[in-house]
Amino acid sequence: MPIRLDQGSPPHWALRALGALAVAYLALSPAFRDLSPSEFGELTDIAVLALAALSLNLLIGFTGQISIGHSAFFGIGAYTLAILVADHGWTPGWTYPVAALICFVVGVFVGVPALRLRGLYLALVTLSLAQIFPALVRKFDELTGGSAGIGGLNYDAPGWTGFESGRRGRAEWMYWLALGTLALGYVLVRNLVKSRVGRSMVAVRDNTTAASVMGVHVAATKTIVFGLSAALAGVAGCTFALRQTQATPENLNFTIIGAIIFLVIMVVGGAGSLAGPIVGAFVYYRVDQFTREVPDKTWLPDSFRDFLQGRPNLATLVFAVLLILLMFLAPFGLVGLAKRIGRRFVVVVPSAPTDQPGAPVEPGEAGAPEEAALPAG
Amino acid sequence: MERFLQYFFDGLSQGSIYALLALGLVIIYRGSGYLNFAQGEMAMISAFMAWWFADMGLSPWLAVGVAVVVAFVVAMGVERFIIRPIGHRSPFAVVVASIGLFLGLNALAPFAWKVTIPEAFESLFPNEPTDFVSVGGAEWREQNIGVLVVLAVTAGVLYLVFQRTRFGLAMRAVASNPESSPLVGIRTGQVLAVSWGMAAAVGALGGAMVASLRGNVDASMMLTIFFAATAAATLGGYDSLLGAVFGGIVLGVFENMVAGYQPDVVGQELKGVVSLLVILVVLLVKPSGLFGSQRVERV
User: Fold this and answer.
1) Which of these, B224, B65, B74, B205, lies nearest to B148 by C-alpha position?
2) How much is the ipTM here?
3) For the domain with range B2-121+142-285, which CATH number is right: 1.25.40, 1.10.3470, 1.10.10, 1.10.287?
4) Closest residue of B to A205, CA-based?
5) Residue B147 and residue A271: Cα distance in Å, rounded?
6) Which of A209, A221, A252, B50 is the most buried (most CB within 10 A)?
7) How far is it, in rounded angstroms, from Cα B156 to Cα B192?
8) Contact B248, B236 (CB under 8 A)
9) CATH, range A34-350
10) In this complex, do B82 and A324 lie within 8 Å of one another by their Cβ atoms?
11) What is the pLDDT of residues A118-165, one digit of tens each?
């Protein structure tokens, strides 16, 4: 029999405070742990991937619009930063809002035809967007540097931050920058999802026709969410370009593979869950890292290690299998799985809305509304 | 005129390949309403299998035949054991699973055969520099004619299967009314599994044609072709076999003309943009495609 907690009661607050503390510790601990620049780099990569997956989650997980083209927005963000910094001498920090704005506009432009498209067709349009982005970059080489790309993107920590100059200070600064944008994105998505707009989004996802009948402006909701999602992906791309110190069309994250990686992260973490993308990015990065090192693990049988010699792509295969298995075992990802297990022990009873007095809703009916349904294909 | 014919002939064979892949997409879509994102990669793996069998000493066409049969059987298994159980959960889960297949198959080819560079694939058609038919001054290469013939034969066989056999009738019944078909004794599950098998087999033929034209097999060989095939299927209408063939040919010729006559603006690199524009225009103007049936939704 699970423990029942009333929403907003002191034990519930204590539980949430504990969770918030744990998250804050995990995010801020690099400040007082003695990490090497490359470890800071890894954490930066994770934060960037998490933000990209977060943007996708806003679109797919909460609004039910499938995009397999977010690598293009990621790339547009990266190239906006690269062009403004390398050709026009901007300070990288000031390029972020510009990149976000450009991605928002492009996102809205993609989102508008999407209004007439049912799920799968939207997937098709975004898929071809991902496909042509690297080709466009190569084509317009005067602007983008073509296949060679744009290099030399350094962002030394501004004086007020107090980081030392050089590799170490830059690595730390990059981490805080990536973490800051991730936190900002998280708060934006969280507030959006918990607001009236968020409820319209979920309504559009679960039953577009019914949502429209209930007075939700479906077209506006879809378009704006698409733009916002693109903007977030673009911001992630900005940090990514700085972290790589360059932007080239060969980079996997700007191709269709990148779009699929973001999708994998989102699904592994949990579609329609706020924490999902962050958990997913962490798991993805560490599993990827581990799998790449597997052929060198001495505790494995020699025959297996011999088998793996000269065979690339083990990590990708693992994720492909994981993705399909997850659809069987935990379609809501790791966070969804954790919630399901957690509910055996603790159940939070939602309190009644204050302006409409009534009986508290049973947890089974209204608990965790974001898990009501997977988006329709 | 000579230039026009040249682009036309090259476009025809390119379009035939799009059509073969689009046929696979349409066969699956008709049966289950799913868009199979792994269609291109299934074809790529099949081309690798054909290359592998040929490498073991089979004659090229026999190798392709064996690969087609293997693709048929494996795809039936994929439908039965992966797609169908997941489909009971939600359509989105199927999209994710087929993207998982896409990712996995794309990674599997280099992993399984330890190849990281393109491997030579013997042409299935006469391919000497002199093997062409001269039409109006343009060279219609025999291998391009061969690909077109393969498409014609495949489309003809599919037509006979769908229109003249009992099983084809069952497939059409499931496509037009999946709820009522079981009531008249049609085994829907079997029909769906065979649809996937047929789609994979047609795709395998397409993959072999691509490998033959390129002269090699490579893990990324089907990526752009798959996108073009989705555009072709959109143009023709997702539930029309005739539309897939027509859409593939038209797209192939159109793309080649645009790229040929506008080498600076479009050229080979931006052929993909043509596909995207075709998808967008069709979806905005006539979402059901040229030959597709209108979908009416009950609210």
Assistant:
1) B205
2) 0.88
3) 1.10.3470
4) B92
5) 43
6) B50
7) 21
8) yes
9) 1.10.3470
10) yes
11) 667 788 888 888 988 998 998 888 889 888 889 888 887 777 777 877
